[in-house]
Design goal:
Blueprint: H1 5-9, H2 12-20, E1 24-26, E2 31-33, H3 44-54, E3 61-64, E4 72-75, E5 81-84, H4 90-102, E6 110-111, H5 114-117, H6 123-128, E7 132-137, E8 157-162, H7 164-168, E9 173-178, H8 179-184, E10 188-192, E11 195-196, E12 201-202, H9 213-223, E13 237-244, E14 249-252, E15 264-270, E16 273-277, E17 287-291, E18 296-299, E19 308-313, H10 317-320, H11 323-328, H12 335-341, E20 344-351
The chain binds succinic acid (SIN).
The site of succinic acid has 10 residues, from strand 15, strand 19 and strand 20.
Binding site for Fe cation: 252, 254, 308
Protein name: Fe2OG dioxygenase domain-containing protein
Keywords: Dioxygenase, Iron, Metal-binding, Oxidoreductase
Length: 354
Amino acid sequence: MYGPTEDAERTAFRMAEKKYKLYYDNTRKKKQPRPVDLSDVTDFKSISEAYHRNAELPSGIFPIHCDLHTPIFCLESHPGFYFIPGALPVEEQCRWIKESLTSFPQPPNRTNHNAIYGPLQDLFAAAKDNKVLIQEEQYCGTNNSEVEIIENDINVPTWNFFDQSGALSKGVTCKSVLASVLLRKLRWSTLGLQFDWSKRSYNISLPHNKIPDALCLLAERMAAPTLPLGEVFQAEAAIVNYFGLGDTLGGHLDDMEKDWSKPIVSMSLGCKGIFLIGGKSREVPPLAMFVRSGDVILMAGQARECFHGVPRIFTDKENAEISSLELLFSDEEDSALLEYIKTSRININIRQVF
Ligand code: SIN
């Protein structure tokens, strides 16, 4: 699409990504995030509050009223784009944060770690229990019953979680990595029909579980206002994106599904971020908006052809805006979830593929 890489670097979309991306200034004392001008970032929370107060909206934004508890805001500049501020109550946010960390990365769902480590069971629990992932060569002759023997391929290394004390006593260890490091490096998991990133297509032959019914119902409810009466959104696949401080999702299109009249239902959880919605080419200057925990974005029709991405998340106390999650995750049992989400954002985007 571009000649020299510098051209791609100079597109309007890339310039906006660079504007909001996290950079550090080194002072003599410590690394400080460089201040960024956020005055151009559309804030649907304050727009919604003002709309409830005096029924006024900025030009270019119009509401749709439906049976959700909040109006949906649309952009004249981006037909098919819908923003539902605070769509998910905080209890529901907590539920999906928990699922995103505990059950969604479980095999047969794939994650970014599959390519290196194969399927990993119970990553979140392993990180919570301070475990370490160890690579063992079958031919090293371990008799540990926790190690799965792979038939007919005795030289294939396997990766398994162990207590750190157990790990130290192993003579056959080849490589190891802390589960907490892997959790921090978890970038995506896929639910339902599995997406093959190398081919940029769904691979229906890969083993998969159906998307949980509660998530299907939620997506169906959120998508309903964008569909003609009687048409129902069928959640068939979802990608869960995990962001830590400094992580970004570069501008891209979600165009692998057959029917673009069906929206992508995109839920934000955890720390606040900036979402960019651009045009059909990267040359179109994108609109920046805040996405907070509980917000839902729907992209259907023409909006499916628009570049979008996430150049920034905020994890500092003042800007992350997760105090309601902190109240709900106050139990001892939830402390690991809270620790994670205090410095992270999760996005679940749900698709009808066929
Ligand atoms: C995506 O476009 O795939 C995710 C967007 C987001 O994280 O909000």
